Amino acid sequence: MRAPGNASLTEIEIPQKEDKVEMTGEIVEALRNGMFRIKLDNGHETLGYTAGKMRRFRIRMNPGDRVRIELSAYDLDRGRIVYRLRPGDERPE
Questions:
Q1: From CA 50, how far away is CA 35, in angstroms rounded?
Q2: pLDDT tens, 64-80?
Q3: How many angstroms separate the Cα of 30 from the Cα of each of 5, 8, 47, 54, 89?
């Protein structure tokens, strides 16, 4: 397998995954199938779904819990919940 042109395989840039916007918020409402309505710290509301590792290890989330959510730069209305913050675990971002 040759690289296009005269570039060797070590010189080709591999495109990285899209950057995610990570924010914190509070779960307002629990919906079906691991979906939650989340009020972000900046005042916006978004829909969040449970990340695969959180499903695998059965991390429970209830309304009132603080969570960290990853939002795509393309769709700020839906995101993936990646971490449930413990009380007193607020870290400045």
A1: 7
A2: 999 999 998 889 999 99
A3: 53, 52, 10, 15, 22
Domain topology for 19-85: OB fold (Dihydrolipoamide Acetyltransferase, E2P) (2.40.50)
pTM of the prediction? 0.75
13-41 pLDDT per residue, tens? 666 667 889 999 999 999 999 999 999 99
Q: Return d(Cα 4, Cα 10) in angstroms, integer.
A: 12
Q: Which residue ranges make up each domain of the chain?
A: 19-85
Q: What would the two tokens of residue 53 be?
A: 């590792």
Across the chain, the runs of DSSP E, i.e. the strands, are: 20-30, 35-40, 45-50, 66-72, 78-85
Beta bridge partners of 27: 38
Beta-carbon contacts of residue 60 (< 8 Å; ≥ 6 apart): none
